[in-house]
């Protein structure tokens, strides 16, 4: 059973470009969570999605960031018009259910904005 | 708002020593607390999950305790090995689906 997969592992973008980060949850998991880890900071929750629904986006910046988890295919975290402050590691996690169970984390995508 | 603090930020010990990592949180109304390990440039590996009704969990050389009333958890590592060198993250889950993470303790075990 493959773990949570994220791609690309490393992404370089110039200011103003778009970044698209993909996350394939573990098989059988229908809950996906995105976290951001800024340099020298802890992981911060961004958004929680179930298939075709955004459940909690309280950690998402109000502008330029969006996330989706379509019925088919991976979850996508999209950052439009990237700025240098978006440089961070973005981690995806998945779980079978919400609530008390653990979340399984992917290896992360490291975004560098030049 | 939940805040999670980990002390110390960095720790260096000789191989074979037992050690304790500390985690404190401000809101005791938690679903669970989880300890993770993060290796440089890699993702997070779950080590131990303690439900809110539990006091401790053990896995091999690792033992994690939880004291909800005081807002504290400890991760005890017995007989440390160089392979234990990593950053250890504490995370708490409160109502909703968010994990709140501490900034981690960077552990170096010297051979």
Characterise the protein shown here.
- Chain A starts with a strand and ends with a strand.
- Chain A contains no helices and eleven strands.
- Chain A has strands at residues 5-7, 10-13, 19-24, 31-37, 43-50, 53-56, 65-68, 75-79, 88-95, 104-105, 109-113.
- Chain A has 114 residues and is mainly β.
- Helix content of chain A is 0%, strand content 49%.
- In chain A, β7 and β8 (75-79) form a beta hairpin.
- Chain B has 111 residues and is mostly beta strands.
- Chain B is built from no helices and eleven strands.
- Chain B has strands at residues 4-7, 10-14, 19-25, 30-38, 44-51, 56-59, 62-67, 72-77, 86-94, 99-101, 105-110.
- Chain B is globular.
- The model of chain B has no long low-confidence stretch (mean pLDDT 92).
- The chains are: A mainly beta (114), B mainly beta (111).
- The A-B interface holds A 4, 6, 31, 33, 35, 40-45, 48, 55-56, 58-59, 91, 93, 98-100, 102-108, 110 and B 4, 31-32, 34, 36, 41-46, 49, 51-52, 89, 91, 93, 96-104.
For the structure shown, list the relevant keywords:
heterodimer, A: 114 residues, mainly beta, 7-stranded mixed β-sheet, 4-stranded antiparallel β-sheet, 11 strands, globular, B: 111 residues, 6-stranded mixed β-sheet, 5-stranded antiparallel β-sheet, 60% strand
């Amino acid at each position: 059973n493959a773990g949570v997969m994220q791609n690309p592992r490393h992404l370089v973008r110039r200011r103003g470009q778009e970044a698209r980060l993909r996350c394939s949850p573990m098989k059988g998991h229908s809950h996906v969570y995105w976290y951001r880890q800024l340099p020298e900071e802890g992981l911060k929750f961004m958004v929680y999605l179930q298939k075709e629904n955004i459940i909690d986006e309280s950690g998402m910046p109000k502008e330029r960031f969006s996330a989706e988890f379509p019925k088919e295919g991976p979850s996508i975290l999209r950052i439009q018009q990237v700025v240098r402050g978006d440089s961070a590691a973005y981690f995806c996690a998945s779980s079978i259910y919400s609530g008390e169970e653990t979340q399984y984390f992917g290896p992360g995508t490291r975004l560098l904005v030049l | 708002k939940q805040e999670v603090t980990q002390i110390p930020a960095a720790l260096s010990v000789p191989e074979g020593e037992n050690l304790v990592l500390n985690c404190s949180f401000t809101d005791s109304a938690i679903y669970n607390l989880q300890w993770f390990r993060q290796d440089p440039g890699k993702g997070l590996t779950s080590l131990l999950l303690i439900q809110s009704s539990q006091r401790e969990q053990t896995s091999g050389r690792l033992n994690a305790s939880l004291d909800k009333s005081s807002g504290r958890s400890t991760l005890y590592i017995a007989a440390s090995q160089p392979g234990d060198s990593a950053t250890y993250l504490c995370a708490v889950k409160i109502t909703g689906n968010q994990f709140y993470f501490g900034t981690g303790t960077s552990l170096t075990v010297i051979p």
